[in-house]
Design brief:
This protein is an all-alpha fold. It has helices at residues 2-6, 22-34, 53-58, 71-78. It is globular.
Length: 93
């Protein structure tokens, strides 16, 4: 967060307790999806065991999927000669 401030990036840090409900987490993702000042969303994994990780990741708008985990981004990454992915995962496979 400090580095983002130093270079003038707008950064939003949403910290939720481990006991957060899936509905509350989904609502936070929805708020970020609709916020025009937010250009990318990263969900810190792993999520608590009572949260459906796939459901949360699928709820992120593809154009804000900074990890590149959406089916569109993964599909475009795998296609030869197709559209490039909007984001490429930064972690090795």
């Amino acid at each position: 967060k400090k580095s983002a401030e130093e270079v003038g990036f707008h950064s939003v840090d949403v910290t939720l307790p481990e006991e957060v409900t899936e509905d509350v987490l989904m609502a936070e993702v929805a708020k970020l999806n609709e916020d025009p000042a937010v250009h990318a969303i990263l969900v810190q994994l792993p999520l608590p065991s009572h949260i459906n990780e796939a459901k949360v990741l699928a709820s992120i708008k593809v154009e804000k999927d900074v990890d590149g985990f959406s089916s569109v981004n993964i599909g475009n990454l795998c296609l030869k000669g197709g559209s490039p992915p909007l984001a490429i995962p930064c972690t090795p496979a």
